[in-house]
Write a structure and sequence with these properties.
Residues 1-19 form the signal peptide. 9% of the residues lie in helices and 32% in strands. The chain has 285 residues and is mainly beta. The longest helix is centred in the last third of the chain and has 10 residues, at 200-209. The protein has helices at 99-104, 200-209, 274-283; strands at 3-9, 39-40, 49-54, 57-66, 69-72, 91-94, 113-122, 136-140, 154-163, 168-173, 191-197, 220-224, 240-242, 247-254, 265-269. The strands form two sheets. A six-stranded antiparallel barrel has the order 10-11-12-15-14-13. It folds into two domains: 47-152 and 273-283, Beta Barrel (Thrombin, subunit H), CATH 2.40.10; 155-271, Trypsin-like serine proteases (Thrombin, subunit H, Beta Barrel).
Length: 285
């Protein structure tokens, strides 16, 4: 059984959803939080969300964790040749709700801000051809100026005795709303869905009972439903799985299809990488 405590960890000098302060155990004030079987999020409901874009199109999600850093999945920074992309090849957009409105400069366009990256830092054990350690940090060229609709997430750390199993989390993104990409498209607006967090061993058994050989390691977690129907999907990768306390506990990583019965989504377990994130950020101050 994998234990998580939701002491909130700030990896730089900015307190999530509030003003400047370093590590503390005070409660967070972060607001509640393309998805299959979910619903449209309210505007500004998830101020920590990031759309990662390439050539003007959304391809992955991310989460603001401080004024200079965004967290995403390792596979989001891999190109078609299974090599890491260069920082200049990716842009981020924060404060975003509708991609169409942003690209056309209308609606929430003035609220959505483009951010550029100067460094991409994948986990040192991550390889583009593997799903293990599927996590990466993106360092911004300029710090984000926080506002009511652009805020960092709280990050769950691993120091306590509370389990995530059988709890519900919220996953969000601009990904596909159906596994069959010929039937649907990526969502224009930010969507969200509530998913149930599984016991790792039960998740692995479920996969194997359906003839899938996926091993669910301690640095991963599963979330979804036995009957499928609700899940993250293509282009939701890299986005956040938030706990009911609105702490970042998972990063959308992998799985088989979208919302298939017995095959919940597989996420990178963020608490296992807090120490690595701290070291990376401290080394670049």
């Amino acid at each position: 059984m994998f234990k998580i405590v939701f002491a909130f960890a700030i990896l730089s000098l900015v307190k999530c959803g509030q003003s400047q302060i370093a590590f503390t155990n005070q409660p967070c004030s972060v607001r509640n939080p393309k998805i299959v079987g979910g619903s449209e999020a309210e505007r500004n409901e998830m101020p920590f969300m990031v759309s990662l874009m390439r050539r003007g199109g959304h391809f992955c999600g991310g989460t603001i964790i401080s004024e200079r850093w965004i967290l995403t999945a390792g596979h989001c920074i891999c190109n078609g040749l299974q090599q890491f992309m260069k920082p200049a090849q990716i842009q981020g957009v924060v404060g975003l709700h509708s991609i169409r409105e942003y690209l056309n400069g209308i609606g929430n366009g003035p609220d959505a801000l483009r951010v550029d990256f100067k460094n991409i830092v994948p986990h040192p054990q991550y390889d583009c051809n593997d799903v293990k350690h599927d996590i990466a940090l993106l360092e911004l060229v300029q710090p984000i100026r926080f506002s009511s609709h652009i805020q960092p997430s709280c990050v769950g750390s691993e120091e306590g005795h509370r389990s995530l199993e059988q709890e519900y989390g919220t996953v969000s993104g601009w990904g596909w709303t159906h596994e069959n990409q010929a039937e649907n498209d990526r969502s224009d607006v930010l969507r969200k869905a509530t998913v149930k967090i599984w016991n790792n061993e039960a998740c692995e058994r479920s996969y194997r009972s359906l003839g899938k050989s996926n091993t669910i390691g301690e640095t991963q977690l599963c979330a979804g439903y036995e009957n499928g129907q609700i899940d993250s999907c293509w282009a939701d990768s890299g986005g956040p799985l938030m706990s009911k306390e609105h702490h970042l506990v998972g990063v959308v990583s992998t799985g088989i299809g979208c919302a298939r019965p017995g095959l919940p989504g597989i996420y990178t377990r963020v608490s296992k990488y807090v120490s690595w994130m701290q070291k990376v950020i401290a080394s670049r101050k």
